[in-house]
Amino acid sequence: MNTAELSNGELFFVDLMYMLIIQAVIGFISAHLPNRILNPRRRAYQPRKWEKEGNFYQRVFHIKNWKPLVWDAGKVFQKDFKKDHVDATNPMSLERWIVETCRAEWCHWVTFVLIVPLFSFNPPGMSFFWLIYDSVLNLAPIIVQRYNRPRLMRMLQRLAQPPVAHGTTGADTPATAS
């Protein structure tokens, strides 16, 4: 198909179909990636120093105000995990949630990058539109995952630490009276 022969409306429709197909295919692929591939200890998923354990996203983007508005596509593709029913006191449940943040981040980064072919045959104005569309659709969820993951990791770390009983110093030995 020669895109130069398409009207702007037809080109927009072709672009839209491309974007929807890419999103569906990448969503399906990410839902079926083995959890071991989405290891939160991999460098790509580790918090960066500048992110300040996710606080950067609240300070700069006020994420708490809009995070609930971000649609969870995992509900469509990931049938065996429901964030609404996560037991925050269960380490295995938290570990799975952390892996799911990696899955969502992977999916959105891949989808975000796959907009590049549209720039090769779209006029500048339409390319700009798709860049804004793609940014909202993918960067917002990436920010949510980068914000949530350090918080979930801290929760998991707290569960792994033995509770400190009253009257102890926090070590394994009881406190001594002076």
UniProtKB/TrEMBL annotation:
<dbReference type="Pfam" id="PF18927">
    <property type="entry name" value="CrtO"/>
</dbReference>
<keyword id="KW-0812">Transmembrane</keyword>
<feature type="transmembrane region" description="Helical">
    <location>
        <begin position="12"/>
        <end position="33"/>
    </location>
</feature>
<feature type="transmembrane region" description="Helical">
    <location>
        <begin position="106"/>
        <end position="122"/>
    </location>
</feature>
<comment type="pathway">
    <text>Carotenoid biosynthesis; staphyloxanthin biosynthesis; staphyloxanthin from farnesyl diphosphate: step 5/5.</text>
</comment>
<keyword id="KW-1133">Transmembrane helix</keyword>
<comment type="similarity">
    <text>Belongs to the acyltransferase CrtO family.</text>
</comment>
<dbReference type="InterPro" id="IPR044021">
    <property type="entry name" value="CrtO"/>
</dbReference>
<dbReference type="GO" id="GO:0005886">
    <property type="term" value="C:plasma membrane"/>
</dbReference>
<keyword id="KW-0012">Acyltransferase</keyword>
<dbReference type="GO" id="GO:0016746">
    <property type="term" value="F:acyltransferase activity"/>
</dbReference>
<protein>
    <recommendedName>
        <fullName>Glycosyl-4,4'-diaponeurosporenoate acyltransferase</fullName>
    </recommendedName>
</protein>
<keyword id="KW-0472">Membrane</keyword>
<keyword id="KW-0808">Transferase</keyword>
<keyword id="KW-0732">Signal</keyword>
<comment type="function">
    <text>Catalyzes the acylation of glycosyl-4,4'-diaponeurosporenoate, i.e. the esterification of glucose at the C6'' position with the carboxyl group of the C(15) fatty acid 12-methyltetradecanoic acid, to yield staphyloxanthin. This is the last step in the biosynthesis of this orange pigment, present in most staphylococci strains.</text>
</comment>
<keyword id="KW-1003">Cell membrane</keyword>
